[in-house]
Amino acid sequence: MKAAYITECGPPQNIQYGDLERPDATGTQVLVKVGAVSLNPVDTYIRNGANYWELPNPFVVGCDLAGTVEAVGEEVSRFVIGDRVWGTNQGLLGRQGTFAEYCSVDQDWLYPIPAGISENDAAACSLVGVTAHLGLFRDAKIQAGETIFVHGGTGGVGSMVLQMAKRAGARVIATAGSDEKAERCRALGADVVINYNTENELQAILQAAPQGIDVFWETLREPNIEDIVSVMKDRGRIVIMAGRDARPEFPVGPFYVKCLQLFGFVMFKASADELRACADDINTWLADGSLKAQISHTLPLSEAARAHQLQENNTLGKEGTIAGKIVLNP
């Protein structure tokens, strides 16, 4: 089978596109004929040598996939040959990744694709969708009528948070870096959009929410906790899911006096049951149209190295040329 893989960590140019042996499906594994994969910032960190865990060699890159069941192991009970499925949490914790024509995945990490939803859309919502769901509902426990602030409302995770928060009945304030991206945030349901390149963000937040923010969703890799705490309402919740190397100053006094809570998490440490609960809601919302995939670029799998460079230029280089996800097709 064709696959995008590395034999040594390093820059995007280390990704090779070539032939690897097709995996088998045994036990509780499902062999998926991959129709679409999507790229996440964590994929670039792992490829570049972030020492989270030991990697297989060769290592197929990628976390997300959508496709069709080609074969099932003898212990599989959730799926049959021909089912359309999506999944995430691959290429993590030592598992092989998804950027290949075929991928063998434990049934616990796969979910049915709703009728009428494309493989591209299912793949694009995978990791970012479960990330948004975990932070909003398991951790922050957002409630109807509350106000949430989302940094980057057109980003991979940010666009999912925006839509899910609206689905939950919250008022959403989001940021964008251009008028075009601001208009996209409004189309996704944002009540207020702040252009961080032309407006004072803190002043704009307090103007839009004079009583403060109930839930602050931070996507920046270098969060300013002092500023975040200053705009929070008493008993507010702050969600952080980026910035592995960040070491910001922490305003202890204002934080505890406001009775705030701070949640940090990574989706790959969620249990299979937790992720399946996320997937159930995601499927319901995809099916009823209240959640829509945000795809910025679609490329052939053979251009995986180019896709990684593009993602890295935006995540680390802050080029601002991506609004949503990069999806690749074998």
Please describe what this structure looks like.
The structure is a single chain. The chain is of the alpha/beta class and 330 residues long. The chain folds into two domains: 2-125 and 293-329, Medium-chain alcohol dehydrogenases, catalytic domain (Quinone Oxidoreductase, Chain A, domain 1, Alpha-Beta Complex); 129-267, 3-Layer(aba) Sandwich (Rossmann fold). Helices cover 30% and strands 26% of the residues. The chain is built from ten helices and 16 strands. The chain has helices at residues 41-47, 119-124, 126-139, 156-167, 179-188, 201-208, 225-230, 252-257, 272-288, 304-315; strands at 2-6, 16-19, 29-39, 59-60, 65-72, 84-87, 102-106, 110-112, 147-150, 171-176, 192-195, 213-218, 232-240, 261-264, 295-300, 325-329. Strands 3, 5, 6, 7, 8, 15 and 16 form a seven-stranded mixed beta sheet that branches. A six-stranded parallel beta sheet has the order 11-10-9-12-13-14, sandwiched between helices. Strand 12 (213-218), helix 7 and strand 13 (232-240) form a beta-alpha-beta unit. Helix 3 (126-139) crosses helix 9 (272-288). The longest helix has 17 residues, at 272-288. The chain is globular and about 60 Å long.
